[in-house]
Structure formats: C-alpha cells, structure tokens
C-alpha cells in the first residue's frame, strides 16, 4: 500500500476562525512557477492565515480558514491550474497543533 495518507475530516462551522493546513493536489500538471504565481495571488487577496507555502511532489500546502477555500479554488481555476483534491492531511494537522503549543 504505497502513497497512503490519512485525511482529517473537518466539521465545517461558519465563522469558526479555525486555521487548517490545507493541501491541494495538483497531480501531474504540477509546475512550481505556476504554483508560486497562484500563491502570490492568493496572498494578495488576504486569503492566507499564515505566509507559508509547503511544496510537495504533486501538492502544495497552505494555512487558511475553511471559509476561504471556495475563493482559493476559484483562483486556481481562473489561472488554469486544475486540481484533484483539497484536503487536510492528518499528520500536517497534528504538526500544526503541536507547533501552536510550543510557541
């Protein structure tokens, strides 16, 4: 069983103010320059909770409020950057929460 990831189920509550490390799977069309350009557009619209971009093999992870995900998806599509999934990896979620406790 290669490439198995645990995904955290998020119970959406409007205006909860909770920040999540959201992973966006771009798949084989992954282009670092395109991701960086779109990241700048997301940042310019103040949709990020933290100025942090983590690039993976076919993914990138940003920290956002859940209510910003639809606008981020729109930016991706408007910039011809199709995606296969938007989710929260359980291990990223745990790491982020551990980091909050250490600050």
What does this molecule look like?
Strands 2-3-1-4 form a four-stranded antiparallel beta sheet, with helices on both faces. It is built from three helices and four strands; from the N terminus they run βαββαβα. Strand 2 (50-55) and strand 3 (59-65) form a beta hairpin. The chain has 103 residues and is α+β, with helices and mostly antiparallel strands. It has helices spanning 32-44, 69-78, 90-102; strands at 19-25, 50-55, 59-65, 85-88. Helices cover 35% and strands 23% of the residues.
Largest sheet: 4 strands, antiparallel
Structural class designation: alpha+beta
The proportion of residues in beta strands is 15-25%
**Fraction of residues in helices?**
25-40%
Task: Summarize the structure in short.
By secondary structure, this protein is α+β, with helices and mostly antiparallel strands.
Helix/strand layout:
Layout: E1 19-25, H1 32-44, E2 50-55, E3 59-65, H2 69-78, E4 85-88, H3 90-102
Antiparallel strand pairs: 1-3, 1-4, 2-3
